[in-house]
Amino acid sequence: MATATERPPTSGVTHTSATLLSAPWRASAWIDTAQVVAGFPIAVVACTVIASLAATTLSLAITAVLAVPLLAATFLCGRLFSSWQRARIQGFTGVSIPAPPVRYTGSSWLRRLWSEARDPNTWRQLGYHLLSGLTASIGFTFVVGFWTVGAMLSTIVLHGWALPDDTVLDPLVSPAGLVLLTTLGLVIFFCAPRVAHVAARLDATLATRLLAPSRSEQLARRVASLSESRAEVIEAADAERRRIERDLHDGTQQRLVSLAMNLGLARTTLTEVPESVRETIDQAHEEAKLALTELRDVVRGMHPAVLDDLGLDAALSGIAARSPVPVRLLVELPRRPPRTVEAVAYFVVAEALSNVAKHAQATRVDIVVEATPDGVLTITISDDGRGGADPDRGTGLRGLRQRVGSVDGTLTINSPEGGPTIVVVELPCA
After folding, report:
1. Half-sphere exposure (CA, 13 Å, Cβ side) for 246?
2. DSSP 3-state assignment of 284?
3. Which portions of the chain are predicted below pLDDT 50?
């Protein structure tokens, strides 16, 4: 997407004359003038070459042997002149105009030429060069004309004596005529920076609109970039959860196991200590076991190790076995989904079972996990509870929808009052 470095606005005066007159000695005035002057020969040469090649190609269209090479030369010149114009605009204005994405497919040059001919960006660039030949000529004429005429008339007092006598110019060399011409010249000279600025802005705007990818393509590239960034963030977060799970499992959990074993050993061996000490040891032992159980639940809720080791089927079987509501589980996957999709599917089922146990008052839950031929993982969760599940009234279902949406999945809930509740989740695996 094109980016521009805006020049600071002129401060101080806001009346009409200030918008027309500008200081000729400002650096921005000469930068604008140099941009217009430098673009004139490139635009004229590009317009002439491309127009000549296009006309010759059209005249020889019936002879494909000659027309095809000329068409290729036209496209090549269009790319070359476009790169020159992009470099000129960026050098003078700071506007970076990205080149359109390359869509040329095929191994042979004829296929590449055909792909280029079907690309709208190719014709937009050629249209720019044909149009800029006219606009650059007009801008060059006005800018150079204002500077030249303004400089000549504003200094006519110095060289007005050289005008011939006894001609139609004779009234202009009178004192009143010299004053009038000098005033007019100063006005034109001080208007020249504004004219150069307008011409330079029009030049940059035309190049930005036609040499850069279209807005729809820029949005498509932006969407693709955001999708890649989001996927990287999700993968990084998933990797971080796995790392924390391993650290807790291999570090903190092992220390708690060792502490519980030592307290259990002290509980059985220290039989001659006072009763108050035994009660303290017993209480510490029970607290250690409770902390170990809670830590295992936390680790399992972050990212279960069985999901990485044995896959989604084994992981879902584990949470189905621990569910307080009887669960019938069917998993039919011809191959393992991506890790990110597996993690989302696992947590969706875990959260759904938790919601059923807390709110549904159900006696049975059916879970079906299968992969469709078009690469979509479908999860269907149904229960015979009281129904009435609404994502707008609870954070659990909203969290499910957000987690599913993180991988471009969809979540559909059908839960009328009185039940049953059916939750269908579709996760793309491509």
Report:
1. 8
2. helix
3. 1-18, 168
**C-alpha 209 chain-centroid distance:** 19
Predicted pLDDT of residue 357: 84
* Rounded CA separation 158/118 (Å): 61
- Where is 414: in which H helix or E strand? strand 410-414
pLDDT of residue 361: 82
Half-sphere exposure of 219 (CA within 13 A, CB side): 3
pLDDT digits (tens, 9 = 90+) for 394-429: 656 777 787 788 788 888 888 888 878 888 999 888
Give burial (CB, 10 Å; 0-12/13-18/19+) of 158.
Answer: exposed
In what side-by-side order are the strands of the sheet with 365-371?
327-332, 365-371, 376-383, 421-428, 410-414
Q: Tell me the HSE value of 160 on the side-chain side, using a 13 A CA sphere.
A: 19
Q: 369, 345 in Cβ contact below 8 A?
A: yes
Q: Please report, to the nearest 10 degrees, the dihedral formed by the alpha carbons of residues 10, 11, 13, 14 taken in order.
A: 70
**Residue 374: its pLDDT value, please?**
81
Tokens of 163: 């005008």
| C-alpha closest to that of 385 among 349, 425, 415, 354 | 415
The C-alpha R_g of the chain, in whole angstroms, comes to: 38
* Residue ranges of E strands in 303-364: 327-332
Backbone region of residue 376 per phi and psi (left: phi > 0; alpha: psi in -120 to 50; beta: other values): beta
Please tell me the distance from the alpha carbon of residue 282 to that of residue 291, in angstroms, as a whole number.
14
Q: Provide the greatest CA pair distance for the chain.
A: 138
Name residue 297's amino acid: D
Residues 402-415: b if buried by 16+ CB within 10 A, e if exposed: ebbeebebebebeb
Task: Give every CB contact of residue 387 below 8 A, 6+ residues apart in sequence.
Answer: 360, 415, 416, 417, 418, 419, 420, 421
Q: Which two tokens stand for residue 35?
A: 């941009």
CA–CA separation, 28 and 417 (whole Å): 71
